[in-house]
């Protein structure tokens, strides 16, 4: 409804904070009054989409050190999120009382926002910017990185892994969440912490049905709203190497990214660089928080720093393609020219690549990234390549397969589905439609 007041409360992760922006822009365009509660580092940054005075500081981001190992990393990350919510929720409750929104919007990790809304009786809407957390008997449990299989032994496997996930991997987070509810005077809920911040009223899932496994029990209030498209950078200009690397290899350039949380180039970028050299492909590698100098950048990498002479036999042939390394290049600028997107598996980047019809090669098994790679593989839109530090030869073979006709067709199928959806448009209409029905949490 026009004139509605919406308060977005983001979890203390930059990507999730940024991913709220399309929804808030869509709501603003439809006459809603928008507020955004964000962690201290992003007040005043492009990670918010609200007028001056409508951006609210919810507190600092606590330090997090990955313990190493995928299972331990997942366990520690969710325990960290719940511990952060226990600190942040008091500020968030006061903010909800001050703003008095008609509805609260949270991401699927926004425990503080969801709990504050429940505590004060304000309806809340969640959005998902990763694989669906909703459980299903045939679906591998979130975080397991297992393939989708329907024969009975695999279904039993899902049940066993689900129990182990809740009672062992997520035990510390689960205990912390129960204690946090009790401290807020909320009744006990026998719900896994992974699902605790999913709204019972409306969940906006960024993606398309083609990227999710078939589910018999998916709630009716879950709606797929398409690909997130982060706001474009201000003042960015094409670098001097653009024509040589990108325009000169239109349709075949490889775009590779390390991700926002992990900056060790040995995990994705270094083996990708070696694979590109071995197969004479052109590429653009973005390091994010990592230093481009570790890979010979910024700019086009000199041959002497790119792993020696090219090897033939992995699809190589012809002159060596140029490879550029930069801290940041907008994906949306490169993807129209790309043949493959190599990534550790961030959901936003994967969706953006598939929205351009570009096949995805997901590398590694950290956090929930293998779950994403498995879904891409199941959709026929790319491949999952496990291992924390793949060998260049294996990555070169993965590149050759991902460029194949079948995966290109699969990526185009997903792109066609994503093209019918838009988070800003569809999300805003669904949120305002919910308010028009007079929903409450009670």
From TrEMBL:
Residues 324-420 form the Erythromycin biosynthesis protein CIII-like C-terminal domain. CDD domains: GT1_Gtf-like. Coiled coil: none annotated. InterPro entries: EryCIII-like_C, Glycosyltransferase_28, UDP_glucos_trans. This is Glycosyltransferase. It comes from Ornithinimicrobium kibberense.
């Amino acid at each position: 409804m026009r004139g509605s007041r919406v308060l977005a409360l983001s979890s203390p992760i930059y990507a999730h904070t940024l991913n709220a922006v399309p929804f808030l822009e869509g709501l603003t365009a439809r006459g809603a009054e928008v507020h955004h509660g964000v962690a201290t580092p992003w007040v005043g940054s492009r990670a918010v989409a609200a007028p001056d005075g409508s951006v609210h500081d919810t507190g600092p981001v606590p330090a997090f050190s990955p313990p190493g190992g995928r299972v331990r990393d997942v366990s520690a990350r969710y325990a960290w999120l719940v511990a952060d919510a226990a600190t942040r929720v008091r500020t968030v409750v006061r903010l909800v009382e001050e703003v008095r929104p008609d509805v609260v919007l949270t991401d699927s990790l926004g425990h503080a926002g969801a709990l504050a809304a429940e505590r004060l009786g304000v309806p809340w809407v969640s959005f998902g910017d990763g694989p669906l957390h909703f459980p299903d008997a045939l679906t591998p449990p979130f975080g397991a990185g297992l393939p989708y299989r329907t024969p009975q032994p695999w279904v039993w496997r899902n049940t066993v892994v689900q129990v182990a996930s809740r009672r062992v991997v997520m035990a510390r987070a689960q205990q912390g969440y129960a204690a946090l509810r009790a401290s807020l005077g909320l009744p006990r809920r026998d719900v896994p912490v992974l699902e605790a911040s999913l709204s019972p009223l409306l969940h906006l899932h960024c993606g398309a049905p083609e990227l999710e496994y078939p589910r018999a029990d998916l709630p009716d209030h879950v709606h797929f709203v398409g690909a997130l498209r982060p706001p474009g950078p201000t003042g960015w200009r094409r670098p001097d190497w653009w024509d040589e690397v990108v325009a000169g290899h239109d349709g075949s350039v490889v775009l590779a990214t390390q991700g926002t949380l992990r900056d060790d180039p040995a995990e994705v970028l270094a083996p990708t660089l070696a694979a590109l050299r071995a197969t004479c492909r052109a590429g653009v590698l973005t390091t994010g928080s990592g230093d481009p100098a570790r890979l010979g950048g910024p700019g086009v990498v000199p041959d002497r720093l790119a792993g020696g002479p090219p090897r033939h036999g992995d699809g190589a042939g012809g002159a060596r393609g140029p490879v550029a390394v930069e801290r940041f290049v907008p994906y949306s600028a490169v993807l129209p020219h790309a043949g493959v997107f190599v990534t550790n598996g961030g959901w936003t980047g994967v969706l953006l690549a598939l929205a351009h019809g570009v096949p995805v090669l997901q590398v590694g098994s950290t956090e929930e990234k293998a779950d994403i790679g498995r879904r891409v593989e199941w959709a026929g839109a790319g491949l999952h390549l496990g291992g924390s530090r793949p060998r260049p030869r294996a990555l070169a073979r993965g590149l050759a397969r991902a460029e194949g006709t079948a995966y290109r067709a699969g990526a185009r199928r997903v792109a066609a589905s994503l093209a019918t959806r838009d988070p800003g448009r569809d999300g805003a209409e669904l949120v305002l439609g919910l308010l028009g029905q007079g929903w409450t949490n009670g």
